[in-house]
Amino acid sequence: SGSGSGSGSGSGSGSSSPTIERKTLYFVRHGESTWNDTFNQGKHRSAIVFVIGFIPGLIKACLYELYLVLSGKMDSWFYDAPLSYLGLSQVDELGHFLKKKSGKSQQDDPSLATTLSILRGDPSAPPSQLVSSSLRRAISTMAGGFRDRLSRHPDEKIMVIPSLQEISRNPDTLSITPAHAAVTASWIDQTSTIADFNQLFATQVDTSLHCGNKPIATTNGLLRMTEFCDHVFGMTNNNVDHIIVGGHSIYFRSFFRTYLPYTIDHVAKKKKVVNCGVIALTLMKVTTPAHGDSYMIDPQSIKVVYGGF
Length: 309
Prior knowledge:
Elements: E1 19-29, H1 34-39, H2 47-70, H3 85-99, H4 104-108, H5 110-120, E2 128-132, H6 136-145, H7 147-152, E3 158-160, H8 197-203, E4 205-206, H9 221-234, E5 242-247, H10 249-259, H11 267-270, E6 278-288, E7 292-297, E8 303-306
Parallel strand pairs: 1-5, 2-3, 2-5, 3-4
Antiparallel strand pairs: 1-6, 6-7, 6-8
Helix pairs in contact: 3-6
């Protein structure tokens, strides 16, 4: 139905009836970052291995940070932490998953086949838009994970949305990309063979809305999430009902906690989306004359497409 509009509660029942609009979002968490590699155990190593390697790993990270600073590169291990080598391999696996045209899981679940068709940007699929946080690991995940789609649609761009920047005070959540400037591929991205990140960032990433780093003073998550919801339903190309969102674990978990009904006990409120996990959901905008606009997630709409929580 046009512009994602659902029906109100009762047709033509007067001006007090709420109007409901719907958009389908696909949350794509970034691959593992250099910050994660240094400070988080992760699922790929035991606690003992992490503890033994923590101090040497931290020393290595600090020395490399010093090298990046002294060499004058627009890069960092800690600030706006990029994908790690493991993160790049996770992005590569996501790209291979999206590229698969058919399989037993899709045959058993036709809705999954439809979802993958939308994510791939197939000609038969309804239109969708790729958007991302302003942080490099999210942009790299979108560029690398959706590389096949982007190569088939060279005019398509990943729109950088500042309100998707992670909700935290850690240095890795601060964007180092100057306002409206092209994103710089990290030293790790530049070694990758899965995609030409320099070329993708130069030609298929739109930073026109990027106004630089959101300062620590404005880490208020609710303000950012509300701003993002307003953007989703206020997009000029409002015929797009499917938005593919490259973002972050704390942000996504906070989004579920905020917009799922309070009485609903859902895993999305407790656990983080795994690295490169893809979760589909329906976001609803309910407008009433008395209370204005409010947003909520349909609990029944949440579906694991890839990875999970």
